[in-house]
Every structure is written in C-alpha cells, then in structure tokens.
Amino acid sequence: MRADARKNRDHLLAVAGAAISEQGVDVSLRDIARRADVGLATLLRHFPTREALLDALLHTSFGELTAKADALETDDSPGDALVSWLRDCVGWTTEYRGAVVLMAAAIADPDSALHVSCVTLRAAGARLLARAQAAGVARTDIDGDDVFALVEALAWLGDQRSLAPRADRIFDVVASALLTSTASSDAEAGTRS
Q1: Res. 140 pLDDT band, cuts 50 70 90
Q2: Are 169 and 152 within 8 A, CB to CB?
C-alpha cells in the first residue's frame, strides 16, 4: 500500500475508533466520513462494510489478546491466567460500545469480516480454560463457547450505563464461579494477605 493510502486509512481508523467509542458501533458511516473530512465513497473504498471497518479497527486488539493468551499459557497459574485473560477481554470489548453484539453474530457467520478474528479469540480462551481444567482449578462442565459467551455477557453488562457500576463486582462473581472451590479459596487467600 502506498504511503499516502496508508496514511488515509490510518486516519479513517483513528476517526472511526473515536466515533465508535463515543456513539457505539451503530454510528453512521456517513458521520465517520464527515468527521474524517472525506466522502462516504472514500470510506467505503477502504472499508466496504461496517464489519470490515470494525475488523480493521479491532485487528490489533484481537492479536494482542490472542498473544496474551499464548503468553499466559506458560507464565501464570492456570486459574489466574484464565481470569486475567477474561478480565482483559471484557475490558477491551467495552472500549467500543456495541462491538460485542457484532462479535457474537460473527462467530456463527463464516462470511462475516469478523468471523476469523472472533473464532481465533474464542480458541485462545478455550485453550486457557482447558489448561485450568487440566490443572483441576476450573469447572469441567463448561467449554470455550461458554467462556466466549461470558465475555459477551459481561461486555454487554458494561455497555449498559445503568448497570456499568456493578460490572466489576459481577465480573468477580462470574470469575469465581469459573474456578473450582480450591482455586477460589486460593485466590481469596491471596487477596487477604
């Protein structure tokens, strides 16, 4: 890609990121183009669909969360690794209001521009869950789809202005429910010391 085209694309992504953070994923593409001081056709030439724009915007974050999961597979205790990744994933999804709705739909739609990224992210969480289950510190009656659904649900909670103040406490309740009583007791003992 030529340097000027790359610069224009990066500018569109920066403007789109700010607009989506403020107004959510349903912000008008025309409004994004106007804010970027370009025509709608220019925006659509770079990003033909809303999902393509969101995928480009979120691509780096998806990669970072997947890399973090890879690092956590070897660096932390399995239970702590799972909860740490889950917290980062939920925190990241609330940065772009409404993105979690598109992510949930993309999992089931192989034609979605977000499908591959979401499936990769879900697989990263599933690996952390499997590792925690193998270590005996996570429930065995859930799977990677359940963990991704929890990310979606907790992110949705954070998107609701009236419920957002409770989001951290609800996250802690859900995270402790993922872990076995032994892992939960160890985590509580660590926070008390």
Answers
A1: very high
A2: no
Distance CA 186, CA 100 (A): 31
Q: What is the rounded CA–CA span in Å between residue 33 and residue 58?
A: 18
pLDDT for 181:
63
What's the whole-model pTM score?
Answer: 0.77
Residue at 136: amino acid letter: G
Cα–Cα distance measured from residue 127 to residue 124, given in angstroms and rounded to the nearest whole number: 5
How many CB atoms are located within 10 Å of the residue 138 CB? 23
Q: Where does 94-143 have alpha helices with state H?
A: 99-107, 115-134
Tell me how far CA of residue 9 lies from CA of 16, 38, 180, 188, in angstroms: 10, 11, 46, 47
